[in-house]
Amino acid sequence: MRVLIHIVFVAICLGGGVLLGVANMPGQWYQSLEKPFFNPPEWVFAPVWSVLYVLIGIAGARTFITARSSRAMNAWLTQLVLNFLWSPLFFGLEMPVLALMVIVALLAAIVVFIAARWDKDRFAALLFVPYGAWVAFATLLNASIAYLN
């Protein structure tokens, strides 16, 4: 049963991320934006997010198995909703300032998840550390794009 739960969580994260990525591809609007010097090439995002979605799914499955009705599970669900909301806001609706508000809340939810799991399931918490680092970078990138445009 644990393996099935892990498969479902990873499939939801990875599948949702892929679907939202395909539905909200950076288009002409994004290409026309002024970007900071540290903006990575577009090809970097898909592989990074694919790995992160697997880590997010594993951490979520572990939390679901051991702490289904916990603050950590609520933080996990919150971060997933915010994560899935960001691309449609930024790329779909072309609203970088609103997307910035969402990504700041996403970063906070990631920190809450890490803190909530740190003593109870250090492995799940550590799975969120690269995610938190990437989202912190993405927050800076989002803020820079909002500022420059």
Automatic annotation (TrEMBL):
- The protein, known as: Tryptophan-rich sensory protein
Query: Which Gene Ontology BP annotations are present?
Result: tetrapyrrole metabolic process
Q: Which PANTHER family match?
A: PERIPHERAL-TYPE BENZODIAZEPINE RECEPTOR, TRANSLOCATOR PROTEIN
Gene3D superfamilies for this protein: TspO/MBR protein
Q: Name one GO cellular component term.
A: membrane
Which organism does this sequence originate in? Ferirhizobium litorale
Q: Which UniProt keywords apply?
A: Membrane, Transmembrane, Transmembrane helix
What family does this chain come from, according to its entry?
Belongs to the TspO/BZRP family.
The cross-references to InterPro entries, in alphabetical order and at most eight, read:
TspO/MBR-related_sf, TspO_MBR
Q: Where are the transmembrane segments?
A: 43-61, 73-91, 97-116, 123-148
Quote the subcellular location field of this record: Membrane
Its membrane topology, per UniProt? Multi-pass membrane protein
